[in-house]
Amino acid sequence: MPKLVVFSVTPTEYALKEGSTSIGRSEANDIILNDKSISKRHAIITYQRMKNGDAKVQIADLHSTNGTIVNGDKIGYHTLEDSDQLSLGNIQCAYLSE
Q: How far apart are CA 68 and CA 42, in angstroms?
């Protein structure tokens, strides 16, 4: 199962469920990042299992104030690959496909 690892004081792993996972500072998100550099609704990750069994995982920035960076590039929308490095505001994360 794909997961997002959030590096803060202690790294935390979040399993990504099929469908969408919202990320942000607000309590209404699936992954809550309590940091002022994170927008209330910062980004969304969508996970879709394809007919051939492969997974397609994508991240979209939700017009956040401080942006979403993947492997050093600011993105609006990006298909994630194993070991991609993400920056959401000041928070560092990694995407792991399994």
A: 8
Q: What are phi and psi of 88, to 5 degrees?
A: -115, 105
To the question of pTM greater than 0.70 for the whole model, the response is: yes
Query: What DSSP string runs through the chain?
Result: --EEEEESSS-EEEEPPSEEEEEESSTTSSEE---TTS-TT-EEEEEEE-TTS-EEEEEEE-S-SS-EEETTEEESEEE--TT-EEEETTEEEEEE--
Name the CA radius of gyration of the chain, rounded: 12
Distance CA 91, CA 95 (A): 13
- Residue pLDDT, tens place only, 62-89: 999 999 999 999 999 999 999 999 999 9
